[in-house]
């Protein structure tokens, strides 16, 4: 029998919401269909999904992205609920069960907690359930408060989860086709780098600062995530989430976006 691949897919706020800050239902629905299908092909799927604060702020009819901590946390609580409702609804079309896992940094730094979380993931995957992971923003205020969020809009969280779960691959879906030699939004002549074997200071220099208005991580946190995952042998692909069909291409071994080669592969 073909070996099951364990795949972690991270999707950012800029993919999950539209320009108005509403849920991007079309992308979400196609993402869900593709993930369900990839699981049907015999793979194990974990989804790391952000977007809770943006979706919550919108549902609460806030005129702008909340700045005050308690409002951010309130928006995260509302948005998380809305996101899970949509995921549950969309995944159930394809007869899939989902589970919500909310994590904080200290959950993973303590050995005992880490082992419990890892056991939970194993139990869910064993039951063909798709875990949907997010940072526990309503509780972990230190993280949404800090400028450089520890998990950087979940990029780092997705790497930590991929390592914790011994995933074969981490796919980071962004609002850009991959990692370029400079920020393509600022430089028209930027070129996509399709394969990166080592991440060093020079690589970080290409990444620039924080990303789009709705996303918060930017390429820097994606590089940090790729750094964590590849060191532990997990290959990482950064590609555009606007067309979730790319996940089929990746499953079929086609070249898509930027591949950061895992240390063991
Ligand atoms: P997401 O919400 O999907 O996590 P972000 O907006 O946080 O996305 O990060 C992606 C953004 O990072 C791109 O839209 C781009 O403007 C910016 N960026 C900066 N440097 C680079 C680079 N070298 N290659 C690609 N994108 C870059």
Question: How would you characterize this protein structure?
Answer:
The chain has 265 residues and is of the alpha/beta class. The protein has helices at 13-16, 25-40, 52-59, 69-93, 105-109, 111-126, 141-145, 155-164, 201-206, 218-231, 246-251; strands spanning 6-11, 44-49, 98-103, 130-135, 169-174, 195-196, 235-240, 258-260. Helix content is 43%, strand content 15%. It has a single domain (6-260), classed as Carbamate kinase (3-Layer(aba) Sandwich). The chain has eleven helices and eight strands. Strands 3-4-2-1-5-7-8-6 form an eight-stranded mixed β-sheet, with helices on both faces. The mean pLDDT is 89.
Give the radius of gyration: 17 Å
Q: Whole-number average pLDDT? A: 89
> What is the name of the CATH architecture?
3-Layer(aba) Sandwich
Mass-distribution shape = globular
- Residue share in helix: 40-55%
In CATH, the topology is named: Carbamate kinase
Distance between the termini: 21 Å
Structural class: alpha/beta
Q: Could you name the ranges where pLDDT drops below 50 across 5 or more consecutive residues?
A: none
Task: Sketch the topology as an H/E string, one letter per element.
Answer: EHHEHHEHHEHHEEHHEHE
Strand content: 15-25%
For the sheet with most strands, the description reads: 8 strands, mixed
Total beta strands: 8
Domain count: 1
**At the first level of CATH, what is the class?**
Alpha Beta
Order of strands, main sheet, comes to 3-4-2-1-5-7-8-6
């Amino acid at each position: 029998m073909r070996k099951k691949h364990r795949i972690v897919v991270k999707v950012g706020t800029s993919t999950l919401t539209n320009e108005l800050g509403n849920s991007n239902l079309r992308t979400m629905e196609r993402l869900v269909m593709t993930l369900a299908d990839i699981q049907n092909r015999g793979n194990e799927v974990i989804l790391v999904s952000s977007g809770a604060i943006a979706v919550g702020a919108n549902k609460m009819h806030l005129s702008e992205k909340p700045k005050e901590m308690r409002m951010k946390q309130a928006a995260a609580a509302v948005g998380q609920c809305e996101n899970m409702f949509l995921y549950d609804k969309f995944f159930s079309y394809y007869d899939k069960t989902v589970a919500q896992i909310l994590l904080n940094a200290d959950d993973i730094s303590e050995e005992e907690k880490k082992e419990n979380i890892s056991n939970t993931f194993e139990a869910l995957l064993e039951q063909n359930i798709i875990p949907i992971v997010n940072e526990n923003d309503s509780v972990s205020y230190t993280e949404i408060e800090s400028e450089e969020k520890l998990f950087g809009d979940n990029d780092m969280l997705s790497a930590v989860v991929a390592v914790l779960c011994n995933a074969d691959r981490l796919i980071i879906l962004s609002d850009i086709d991959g990692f370029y030699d400079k920020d393509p939004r600022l430089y028209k002549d930027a070129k996509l780098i399709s394969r990166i074997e080592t991440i060093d200071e020079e690589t970080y220099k290409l990444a620039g600062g924080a990303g789009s208005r709705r996303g918060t991580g930017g390429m820097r946190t994606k590089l940090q995530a790729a750094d964590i995952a590849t060191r532990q042998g997990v290959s990482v692909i950064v590609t555009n989430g606007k067309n979730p069909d790319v996940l089929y291409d990746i499953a079929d071994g086609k070249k898509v976006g930027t591949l950061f080669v895992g240390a063991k592969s």
